[in-house]
Each structure stands twice: as structure tokens, then as C-alpha cells.
Amino acid sequence: MTKPTLESVQITTLTNGLRVVTESVPYVRSASVGVFVGIGSRDEDPDTAGISHFIEHMMFKGTPKRTAHQIADTIESRGGHLNAWTDKEMTTYQARVLAEDTGLALDVLSDMLLNSLLDPEEMTREKGVVIEEIKMYEDSPEDLVHEVFEQALWKKHPLGRPIIGSEETVKAISREDIVNYMSSRYRPDRIVVAAAGAVDHQSIVEQVSGTFSGLSGEALLPAHPVPTPSGKDKQVKRRNTEQVNFCLGSRGYSKTSPERYSLSILNTLLGGNMSSRLFQEIREKRGLAYNIGAYTRYYRDGGVFCIYGGTSPATFDQVIELTKHEIETVCRIGFTDDELRKASTQVRGALVLGLESMNSRMNRYGESLLSHGRVLPVEEVLANYDAVSNATIIDAALYVFDDRLQTLATVGPTGRAAAKV
Q1: Active site amino acids
Q2: What CATH number should be reported for the domain whose range is 2-211?
Q3: Which of 116, 137, 232, 271 could connect to 278 by a Cys-Cys bridge, CB 3.0–4.6 Å?
């Protein structure tokens, strides 16, 4: 059944449950195509942590039809770009190509996902690559601190585990583990094929229907409790570095929570860009940090709000106190009318400007269909942002900045600097 939606988006659900979503943009000469799998690191068992990310790597290592080199060369030799990424709830494989190569891109992506050889020798080599990637994060305190933060925040919940896994779990992954994981998780009800650009919806539906027709059934996902913050906590990882990198934050909202729009505006105003309060107060006015900001992460049943930065050990306490002062001010009085107007314009502009990119459109449609079961129209999203008020922002601030739940993570030569949250 095919039904039109706003923004010229068309959605078709195949007989096996796989969904195809496209938007035809005839004035461009390119196409972005992606296969979105609603499976990520939170859907793994502890002893195979990192398998979702490792599978993403192995999908590029050859099929009976194409070698690893041919997979990349087929797209890149025609000026296109092939990419993939894994997060805690999703894995996606995508290509950006000229419009006339849309069918070729779909063929390559489907070949990778359905026919990968999973050669044991390739697996051994790729494990070495992933282990080097793990070491790279360990050597990058500005990246590592975010993993330390979520591990402290979520404790033993799967959301607290690193997406990439550990050296121990990656080494232990077997070919049988991958086959079993994909056969139980990579099911059509968890897969969306999305495309945007100079594409024809029916042609894509016909091709996807043919290539993915062998998939059936529903994904068997492990039952995990709703993520609950661990409570007021700190996690210190000492490193002999020049700076202390830190994350301070707690719970946020889920992908489907209406309050996420207020939290998004709060994030923008507090630490989301160079005009935000934290950036202006800590970097521009006082020169205490080069890197200071905030972000939100939304999951199926919960979320994260985090303030992050890096500063010298001698100024760490001062930066934390200034950050807490800004938090307390927001919880007490929120923001000025002028700040709210600017933030609304910023969010609206970022959303609309993002639609200039076919890749952004494609990602928006694939992620929205997996997370919400529908594509959220731009007009609806903008209306939700317009409904945000200072009162709803204060409510969101009181929720995410509950002092009983604040978690502090630091990486660096902290000593006594991380003695209190």
C-alpha cells in the first residue's frame, strides 16, 4: 500500500513488512540512498558487545559478486560516496550518487547486507582494525570522556556500554555469532530503505521488493528495562594530559517525548553554539576553555543531556562552578524573550537549511520512520518548536538538572578537582 504524505514524500510497506520511503526532488541531479536497520549496541548481549559495529565493518568486506575493493570502487569510480555508521539504536548503510546511478547504489547496498561472505580471514584482519579504533578513542580524552560519562550515568544498562565494544568482546566475536545476530535482528520490520533526490519511488520499490523479498519475520529484541539514571555520581579516569575533559549531565527525554522540543531550545541557548551562554561566559568573557558546549541524545525510552568541555586542572573548579551557576539561573528564571526569539529562529533555520541537502533529507526520513512509524512533516516540527515557551523550558531544565541525578565524568589529571559533583 502506497500513500502520499507532505513534502512530496511517499511511503510503501512491502508484504514482508519492510518500508520504503522516498522524496522526489526533480531539480537536483543526485540521489542519496540508505538502508536503515533499527538495531544498535543497546540490542546486544554483554558477551557480544560491539557486534553491531563490527557487522557494519564486515558488510564492506566482500560478497560473491564483489570484492571489498569492488564494493568501494563501484560507487567511488562514478563520483559517488559510500558510508555507514552505528549508534546505540540504529545502523545505517548509505550512498550518495548521481541520479542515473541510483539503481546501482541500491544494488551495492543490498548486496552488502544480504550476501556478505563474512570470510574468517577478513574477520581476523578487521578485528585488528576495530581494536585499533578502540585504542584511538582511549588516546583521545575529549572523545573518551563521553563514553565514561554514559557508563557512569547508565551503569549496567546497555545504553551505558560503548558502541564499539571492548577489546575482549571484539576478539571473541565469531562468524556464528554474526550469522545468528543478523538472522534474529536484521528482520524486515526493523529495516527502512530511504532515498531522496532525483529518484522515482515506484522504481525503487520494485527493486527493493525484488532484492529484499527473501527476508521475513520480526526481529527478536532482548527485553531491557527502561534506562534509569544511576543517581548523583562521579567517574574519574586519570590521564597525564594538559587538560581535564569533563561531562556534566543526567537524563533527558525520549525520541517521542513532546518535551524534547523544549529541551532542544534549552540546549541551543545554554551550550549549543558559539552564541550560547556557556560559550560566551566561559570561553569568550573569561578565556577559561577552548571547548565548551552541550548536547542532547534521544533514545527509544529515555535520553541524555550533557554539558562538556576541557580546561586546565587549575581552572577546572572555576569552570564547574560557572557552569552550575548558569544551570541554576536557567532553572530559576529561564531565558529572556530576545534569547527565545533568536533560538527559535536558529532551530527553524537549521532545520530548513538541512533540507537543502539530499543526504540530510534521506537521513531524516529513514530515522523518522524507524523512530516514529511515520515521517514527521516539517510544518509539524516547526509548530512544536513555536509552542515552546520560557515556562516549558524551565520545566525541562528542572527535569534534566535534578541535583539528585547529576553525573560528572572527567578524564585528565584531576586529583581533587573531581571530588564533588
Answers
A1: 56
A2: 3.30.830.10
A3: 271
